[in-house]
Structure formats: structure tokens, C-alpha cells
Predict the structure of Histidinol-phosphatase.
Amino acid sequence: MRVDCHLHTVHSGDAVTTVDRLAERVREERLDVVCVTDHHTLAGAHEALSRAIGARVIVGEEIRTYAGEIIGLFLTERVPYVLPLEDAVRRIRAQGGLVYAPHPFDAARTSLGAAGLSELHTMGALDVVEVFNAKTADEEDNRRAARFAAEHGLPAAAGSDAHDPQGIGAAYAEMPDFDGPEEFLRSLTEARIIGEFRPHVGYRPGSRP
């Protein structure tokens, strides 16, 4: 299964990918599962769920906390943004979701960094570490995430972090099939991480997203 664990739609507010274009890119990239992780909303994931996009959809949300950004996966309810890290984790866990650390060492974004990542791990609340983010320009940042996951025995994942159609599928985990959060974590332990750096694409007014 090819699983892009982190991508955005127009519902994020800073992305241009419509659900129609997501469906096209799913076919072109031969993705089996997409985690739709818009900023502070589940609307894009729910729209993708309601449509035949050609891939299974995991409902997620990228959430800004005081410590940095985290992602909740397998959500049923939106988590408010700019909460203390512990509160955001509690809300994710209360709905049976997983806590995923995106681009944790990328200083160019609102990332957890070493301190936030360690805090999550100490809380026993770090389920998945994103070890390849296709928008992370410095390869060492991804390597640091991979080392952290390996040293702490944590499942590793990959996401395109696509905000435009061209970015979708730039990074993914190739893993066994799964059903639900617990099997997702088990399958990630057998995943092969695939990825390439693919920067954001700008759009001219009137161009097709």
C-alpha cells in the first residue's frame, strides 16, 4: 500500500488542491491511502471521504500547539488550534486518534524541535514520527527525525506535505494493508519510506489548481 501520510486541500486556507485534483493525482501517483491533514479543519478530509477519489482517506488535522505543530490521525472531531501540547494530545487520544509529529526538526516551520519531540515522547504520547517530509529542504532535518524514531523505537512515516497537486505523492510509506489506528502503527513498522524533495509550486491568477 502506498500511503501519503500528510497532505493538504484548499480547506487548509494556504493550499490550492481541490478534491477533484486530489483524485486525479491519486490516480497518477498510484496512491492507495491519503491522510488529509488540513490546518485546523476536517472539512477537506470529509469532502474526500464523501467522494470517490480512488484511495482510502484517513481523516486528520495539522494542529498548532504552543510547542509546535502536531498532526492528529483517525479523528472524528476537530481539535482547536494553539492549545498547550498536553491538551491537544488529550483531545486526539479521547477520540481514538494517533499523534503524529510532522517535519519535527525543520526550523523553517512551526515544528516541535528536539524539546517538543522529547516532551511528547516523555508523555508517552508520540505515536509516529515523520522521517521524510517532501517540503523539508535540508536533508539533515529529515535524517535527524529518522534517527530519533530509530533510537526510540517509534514508527516512521513519510508525507508529501503537498499544498498543490504537483506535490502529492512526493513522499509516502509503502506498507502492508491495515484497518484502523492500531494496525496502521503495526504496518508502519514494516514500511519502506519513499521520498524526494519537491518544493511548493506557485500559481498565477487564473491558473488551474
User: Anything to note?
Assistant: The chain has one domain: 2-195. The beta strands are 2-7, 33-39, 56-65, 68-73, 98-101, 128-133, 156-159, 171-174, 192-195. The longest strand covers residues 56-65. The CA atoms of residues 11 and 44 lie 5 Å apart.
